[in-house]
Amino acid sequence: MDLGIAGKTAIVCASSKGLGRGCAEALAAAGVNLVMNARGAEALAETAAHIRGTYGVEVTEVAGDVTTEEIQQRLLSAAPQIDILVNNAGGPPPGLWSDWTRDDFIAALDSNMLTPIALMKAVLPGMIERGWGKIVNITSNSVKSPIPILGLSNAARAGLTGYVAGTARQVAQHGVNINNLLPGIHATDRAVSLDTGVSKSEGISMDEARKKREATIPVRRYGTSEEFGATCAYLCSQHAGFIVGQNLSHDGGAFNSTL
After folding, report:
1. Which residue, 2, 20, 79, 209, could crosslink 195 as a Cys pair with Cβ 3.0–4.6 Å?
2. Per-residue 3-state assignment (H helix, E strand, C coil) for the chain
3. Is residue 1 part of a domain?
4. In this structure, is the dihedral angle defined by the CA atoms of residues 217, 221, 223 and 226, taken in order, positive or negative?
5. How many folded domains does the chain comprise?
6. Distance between CA atoms of 123 and 126, rounded to whole angstroms?
């Protein structure tokens, strides 16, 4: 399928690896030029070089912490106009309700709520003026089904979800679509980290920990970054103009709900 977005320009945050990289590669395959961001300059440079060589699109790298105003401004000024924005950030560390301080919550909000909102506010005026724009926020299935040990993530991402619910419906009349893409368990570094935690806490091997979590997914496997990226690219395509303010689970059926 031709997604109809060749020649557009996208900011993709946290895109040197994992789900962010999956989104960047899928957009590049559709002919989209990229402004890529990640904290690790070396990994970002390697991924950017791979995408340039494989897909022949323009790629600008902006290494650094996207929660800072400096990096946000560098991202926004890296291209004459931004047509697509993919917000993404690693989740806060797991823990218990009794562990977290005010500073922990502020850090989680900065990363998983306030930074995506700041970037959306920056790109929306131009998108509205041009009558076209796509924004996808990578959040988490935890906004639908909270994960007890990820309370920081639950809280921050739920706040972003509430913001998007109203904002998406305000800008849709201008040809701008905002949606959230909710990953379940995918074969990324985050899954390895969580599997490691299960392995240590339950005294089982990593393979046993993974199989135990796979058993909770109807498709009985982890998702791939390629599958996730293709879904993101579709939400950014010309074919997704009637999808507004949705929270699309990408979880192999793990979230059990009739609606």
Report:
1. 209
2. CCCCCCCCEEEECCCCCHHHHHHHHHHHHCCCEEEEEECCHHHHHHHHHHHHHHHCCCEEEEECCCCCHHHHHHHHCCCCCCCEEEECCCCCCCCCCCCCCHHHHHHHHHHHHHHHHHHHHHHHHHHHHHCCEEEEEECCHHHCCCCHHHHHHHHHHHHHHHHHHHHHHHHHHHCEEEEEEEECCECCHHHHHHHHHHHHHHCCCHHHHHHHHHCCCCCCCCECHHHHHHHHHHHCCHHHCCCCCCEEEECCCCCCCCC
3. no
4. negative
5. 1
6. 6
CATH number for the domain that contains residue 133: 3.40.50.720
pLDDT attached to residue 201: 85
Which domain covers residue 174, as residue numbers?
A: 9-184+223-250
Amino acid present at 159 = G
The pair of structure tokens assigned to 68 is 């800072």
Contact yes or no for 26/233 (Cβ under 8 A): yes
Q: State the pTM of this model.
A: 0.94
Residue 156 domain flag: yes
Mean pLDDT within 7-16:
98
pLDDT at residue 137, as a whole number: 98
